[in-house]
Backbone:
């Protein structure tokens, strides 16, 4: 999917490579969280699946990009890491770099995650399922925890409210425990409080409890809130 590029728009959907350390911070993951059945959707080029699986978690990552040949995807992961890091550095005033230490450390962490992802993709391909919200190929209640980062709200400029609702309902369907979605701002840093409120009402009307959880991690200014669903 394309989007017109200009100085203020990231462009195509970014394939991000985040580490387990970032996931722990973003989603306030505890050691107990990492002992269940976990869905990472979309997984992108994150090393979370590889790292959490090494700790004993049963993780499945889903993303439509997993339909690509592994070698192509490994190259894409590194190229996309550079694209994302270049964009963030060029717009560095929009971010708080404290957690990473600076743009250079941010890039290095993402590169390491992309390489770990690529190695695990080859070694354990069954962990990576080619699928796309809002339709996932899993039975009801397949997971204890579903994590969704940097798709919903991030691309609110091209994914409408109906897509957001359908995606969250699908995540709730396949998850018997909690669904956690982050961030609640778009890739430019705009907050979408009205969209969040609308979705929470729609979900509550369908019997899905929702809440907002504050976290200490902050990269986009003010992006310190996770949307939590409890089916």
Residues:
């Amino acid at each position: 999917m394309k989007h017109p590029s200009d100085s203020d728009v990231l462009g195509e959907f970014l394939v991000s490579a985040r580490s387990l350390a970032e996931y722990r911070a973003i989603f306030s993951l505890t050691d107990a969280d990492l002992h269940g059945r976990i869905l990472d959707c979309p997984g992108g080029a994150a090393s979370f699946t590889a790292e959490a699986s090494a700790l004993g978690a049963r993780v499945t990552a889903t993303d439509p990009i997993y339909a690509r040949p592994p070698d192509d995807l490994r190259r894409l992961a590194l190229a996309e890491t550079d694209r994302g890091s270049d964009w963030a550095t060029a717009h560095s005033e929009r971010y708080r770099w404290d957690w990473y230490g600076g743009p250079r450390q941010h890039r290095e962490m993402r590169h390491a995650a992309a390489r770990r992802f690529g190695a695990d993709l080859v070694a354990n391909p069954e962990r990576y399922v080619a699928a796309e919200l809002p339709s996932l190929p899993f039975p009801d209640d397949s997971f204890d925890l579903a994590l969704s980062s940097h798709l919903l709200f991030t691309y609110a400029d091209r994914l409408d409210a109906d897509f957001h609702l359908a995606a969250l309902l699908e995540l709730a369907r396949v998850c018997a425990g909690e669904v956690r979605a982050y961030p609640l701002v778009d890739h430019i840093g705009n907050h979408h409080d009205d969209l969040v409120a609308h979705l929470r009402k729609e979900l509550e009307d369908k019997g899905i409890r929702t809440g907002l959880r504050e976290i200490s991690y902050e990269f986009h200014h003010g992006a310190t809130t996770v949307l939590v669903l409890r089916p």
